[in-house]
């Protein structure tokens, strides 16, 4: 019998969103399910299983498409609300 | 930059969203594939931008989200074009302008010649025109290699030439041949008299002097010999150099008939002006005068931009009527004419000679007037005559070109 190679345990990310940050000035969220709150100081983005909450100053949605949201501004805090 | 260009072509709308939850509109727009950008919250709600076409899709979504949208600003080519929708003339004009631009760019407009120093530019332009490189020529029909070959064959002074066509401008780069230096010939030669005369001064650089000051010589006499004897009594052949000045008698005879015909310009003239553009010629003035004999002049006034003459301008051709006039010549007039002719003779034919004496006499004959001028010039009569030396021949009598020394 052929020996089965032991695979390293992988973390199943499922439908976890992909969050890409450029410093604290720009964040791209892939896997967005919708905008829940849009204010200058706080933007809440639903990703299905959790809600991403960005706090800061002068926050704005730079671009919105089907599943991708680009947030720009001065981000001071990020919360993951599950 | 590219994105801005694309957005300008598509057209963009800046809008305001007012209502309870503008976020809902954002979500609906994202779900339906309506792209929004620069969306930011304001006191009234939210402002954002979208493509002009997408804004129409956004309005039913706004109703669904329970918000109201209002256009704040329209920007881009579709809105700009909409202003001129009813004005077909502008559209046709723009189309014709573009077509004209494309059509005219198929022709050669200007030619510049670079590197020319001694060769006449007008001659080069004329030869280039014969080879097809001229303003107004079809750009893709020009055979630059053939033009290059033609010019190099026809103009001896050129060593290299290149014809480069960039856009509607042709640059002809040329390099002229370096002038051949005059080399001192090493062929042995004698100095002989070019005319009869009396020697006044002998200056010899090399060779053996055969004449003395005061002696008379006939044309062809040996003045300075190229055969010299060394101290060891051996023969040495040299190239004789020197200057032998002699008083030379010269005669000049001129004749002038009693009746002369000459051509003069009258006051009648015909001017024809035409507008020229590339190969196109449009007459601007009409003139129906025709002369059997006429002298024509042509003046051109080309449009110049930044020192470059464009092939657009007015060319005026003027035909001056010519009339043949018969005139009787009296003696005074004949004397004046003879005097002027003799002056030109002294200046151009005997420019390097010193005039010592001059006597003129004018005679009237049945046909006209005859002027006899007797001159005595002091001039250099030494003339180099090469000779060849053959081995084995008697050194004392070297053989020269078909003549014995």
Short structural summary:
The complex is a heterodimer of chains A (82) and B (405). With 82 residues, chain A is an all-beta fold.
Q: Any overview of this molecule?
A:
The complex is a heterodimer of chains A (82) and B (405). Chain A has strands at residues 18-22, 26-30, 34-38, 42-46, 51-64, 68-81. Chain A is globular and about 30 Å long. Chain A has a single domain (24-81), classed as Sandwich (Immunoglobulin-like), CATH 2.60.40. Chain A is built from no helices and six strands. Chain A has 82 residues and is mainly β. Helices cover 0% and strands 59% of the residues of chain A. By secondary structure, chain B is of the alpha+beta class. Chain B folds into five domains: 2-82, Alpha-Beta Plaits, CATH 3.30.70.260; 110-176, Ubiquitin-like (UB roll), CATH 3.10.20; 189-245 and 383-404, no CATH class; 253-259 and 329-378; 260-327, no CATH class. Chain B has a five-stranded antiparallel sheet with strand order 11-9-15-21-20, with helices on one face. A four-stranded antiparallel sheet of chain B has the order 2-3-1-4. The radius of gyration of chain B is 44 Å and the shape is elongated. In chain B, 17% of the residues are buried. The model of chain B has no long low-confidence stretch (mean pLDDT 88). Chains A and B meet through strand 3 and strand 5 of A and helix 2 and strand 2 of B.
The SS-based structural class of chain A is mainly beta
Assembly state (oligomeric): heterodimer
Total domain count of chain B: 5
Hey, roughly how much beta strand do the residues of chain A contain?
Answer: over 45%
CATH class of the largest domain in chain B: Alpha Beta
- Main pleated-sheet profile of chain B: 5 strands, antiparallel
Main beta sheet strand tally, sense and closure of chain A: 6 strands, antiparallel
Number of DSSP-assigned strands of chain A: 6
Low-pLDDT residue intervals, each spanning 5 or more residues of chain A: none
CATH class descriptor of chain A: Mainly Beta
Q: Architecture of the largest domain in chain B in CATH?
A: 2-Layer Sandwich
Strand content of chain B: over 45%
**Treating each run of at least 4 consecutive H or I residues as one helix, how many helices of chain A?**
0
Which geometry of chain A do the CA atoms define? globular
What's the structural domain tally of chain A?
1
The helix-and-strand class of chain B reads alpha+beta
User: Helical segment tally of chain B?
Assistant: 8
* Average pLDDT level of chain B: 88
Kindly report the CATH topology of chain A. Immunoglobulin-like
Radius of gyration of chain B: 44 Å
Spatial separation of the terminal alpha carbons of chain B: 93 Å
